[in-house]
Records
---
Amino acid sequence: MATPTRIGLAGLAVMGQNLALNIAEKRFPISVYNRTTSKVDETVERAKVEGNLPVHGFHDPESFVHSIKKPRVIIMLVKAGAPVDQTIKTLSVYMEKGDCIIDGGNEWYENTERREKAMAELGLLYLGMGVSGGEEGARKGPSLMPGGSFEAYKHIEDILLKVAAQVPDSGPCVTFIGKGGSGNFVKMIHNGIEYGDMQLIAEAYDVLKSVGKLSNEELHQVFSKWNKGELLSFLIEITADIFSIKDDKGDGYLVDKVLDKTGMKGTGKWTVQQAAELSIAAPTIASSLDSRFLSGLKDERVQAAAEVFKSGGVCDVLTEQAVDKQKREQLPANLVQAQRDYFGAHTYERTDVTGSFHTEWFKLAKQSKI
């Protein structure tokens, strides 16, 4: 490749691939790299299919770094923690003073501040950038929350302004948050609030289904109506979509086949921990986190639901209340996990077969509306 690209992206799982294609679609030539080289080839092929987008793939870190125009800007989208440190170590060997690394994953903000200081000692710039909107947002327009080196932000501002979601009357959904790990901190709080919203929706679903006996068709209609009023939001919209999708592996609706066991990446727990450190009450987020913990105890819940709890005294009544959710065999966590797979491709387990599955909910919902 004779002409250097404008930017690089390392880490080509679902979010990384989609963000790379988004950047390329805005006519910024981009270099991509992944430790598993098949992901590189897959991304380049997608770029061809989706409009011959200017995506250039590399199978080794040295040629990847050297393909980018100076001062180099590289976005990482890898798992938080040790994988981030390893990727930085791999890439920084070939980078020069003034080059910039951006962590686009969900990372603990203190890790970002540690890395920014370490990068500064090498003469490199560093940003921690929250990326919100899931896989569809990454492809079509995410909300971006960069924090750290302002100089680094200015290197990439023109790209971020075009890649971010474009909101009528207010412009691109991106701004420089501030120094240190502030971008990651804001994204952490954003995710914590989202935990609460998702649990509230799940509990509304639980009441409508368990008490109101609404069918999935009726639930789809209710949430679609809610999404046209003051509850208009991304989460209400995708929830309405989820109830409309049939199971292609059998009869009925897919949401009923999703196992009621919710995963998590850690940002909700970090939010609750940080709230405790600052002596700030966050009961809704804490309760939603507890619900995710309980959903993970599937075997224990099934066993508890089969046991006979004797009641009669005050202590027995209190015990009954303490094990509300713990002795329920079925929780509305299936909806939460379906939502997580819809917006973040986090996969889900099924009630009828073993394994992890991912569904392109958005495409199926779009097809059902045609």
---
Amino acid sequence: MSFLVYGRYNQTELDRQYSPSSCVDDLSAFLTSYTTRSARTRTELPVKADIPYGSLPCESLDFFPARGPQAPLLVFVHGGYWRELGKEDSSFPARRLVPAGAAFAAIGYGLAPRYRLDEIVDQVRRAVWWLVEHARDLGVDSERIVLAGSSAGAHLALMALLDGWMPEGTRPADVIAGAVLLSGVYDLEPVRLTYVNEPLGLDAEAAARLSPIRRLPDRLPPLVVARGGAETAEFARQHRELVEAATPRSAAVHDLVITHRNHFDITFDLDDPASDLGAAVLRQLGLPRRASSRTAGDSVRSHRDIGRT
């Protein structure tokens, strides 16, 4: 007899739902592409590598300066289910964003199980605040800092948009111009019940505390919430429920389903101005963009000025 673990899913099916690689033929090809594209980007563009934002070796970031002053900044938080990958695999979106007029930063953070998820969240938040405080020194326009994250990185980026962690009197919505959240997990309760939790060790209380969708502030910056078409039903549900929850709290929520992309290659559109996602990123950064070349069948919805005063 197969017992239901979460919703309509037994253990085997719930594990599959939170295994994005179940929707692709060869995960290693995407991971290799991250590495090779990022290495090429670091040879083509100036980069200030391993800038410390904290005292631990893992607390550093890579910064790609813009070609002009007072530039917008895209801050990228990598995925890997909080236990894999690194900032060195995350340079590739800078390749076209920097020539387009933006600066780019890839945040490094400690990985599970060596670091608890609470610690990882704190590290990403401190990295974001370091970039805010040093914006002028970096040639960045402090009013055009946009966060982006993929998968677990989208979770961490959204955690950085919650209230209560910045210096008193400062809210993320006051200093973060926007966010781009790709294929994220925003409610960790089902994740807690899968194989993903083995290195994390979350109990029910921790999963609730670290689920940003349960703690959204009354005010969020403009959001792009995107996922690939080739995703599991649970990733699609997480995406949909965040859009619904965020819409009354944000001046603009751009809901984007890219039918020809999956959980792993959606990031390749971040710096492509001819894609819907790339165009949305440039719009968040306040940079000019070319007309979109959306593939037929892609689903795009925008929610503006709902529930805001």
---
Amino acid sequence: MNWQTLKQIPLDDILAWAESQPWCRAMADCLQDAEWHSEGDVWTHTKMVCHQLVKLEEWPSLTEQEKTVLIFTALFHDAAKPLTSQTDPDTGRVTSPKHAVKGEHLARSILRDIDCDLMTRKEIARLVRFHGRPAFLLERDDPTHEVVRLSWLVNNRLLYLFALADTRGRDTDSMTRPEENLQYWKLTAEESDCYDQPYPFANDQARFLFYRNTDPNLHYVPHEDFSCTVTMLSGLPGSGKDTWLSRHRDDLPVVSLDEIRNEMKVEPTDNQGEVVQLARERCREHLRAGTSFAFNATNTQKDTRQRWLDLFADYNAAIEIVYVEPQFNLLLKQNKGRSNSVPENVIRKLAAKCEPPTWTEAHTVILTNGESN
């Protein structure tokens, strides 16, 4: 069943579809800590959360898109527990460390396989990643900074509504995450003007510096006087990054890791140290001259992007990241048509670890399927 069908059928039919999937069967076989989840296995809890969503007072006022996002967030929010659960041999307590982090990747992969559109997939995956944050706001050193930080990653209103359903979707008598904590999240977000929208920073540079600063100032208004603009391309092999550049930034000089590898006759499987070193030097040449340029590489993981973004920021460049991702079948077809095609199993491994860029990383972020944008 594909995404277009799934998002139009009733909740019970969505649950029936899920029960036919291997990731769901793993959830049904995965027990949880009784103190937090006396209802039992992960799938039982997941179904309870789904049914609590439609009982929310706010549910009738939500758009169909918002309802779909919340239902599929519920489906996947604990889907990685079978991959992460462990039992303490001394106490018998069950924990699932980093299940939300792994759950984000799992949700993105499953949704990609059923042809869910890029923007919806991003929204669901991010809600899965941060679904537990509202319950622990009181433990944060600066609660206001917490809700502001997440407002550019998720919709705080949807996150709050999901947290309500997640809290109510269990049989535990002694609730360790009281709803009062969730109300505090809502109140803090409303007071910070980021409950149903991203926090309104003074300008793009203010937002950029906020996420780079270990002790950020929400009210700082920096002067925007950039030396140049760097356009960083991001996307899996075969996604169409070169095509996007030729259509939208054809006037820019390009620093391309693929082109440098060809020049140096270095295979992608060889040591990339000299390739990266030369690419950094070519970037520095443009940066020192104040020349806008494009940097073209896969850049599909945040840590990899960050090393390049730090370089660009050191030269006071305005940074835009363009993430290109067509439907996966089209991507595989386009890759096969390239002269330097990448083995399909390698692309699938890269896709499983892919982290699309967010507004926390750059002054501008463009997400596109590469076809008509």
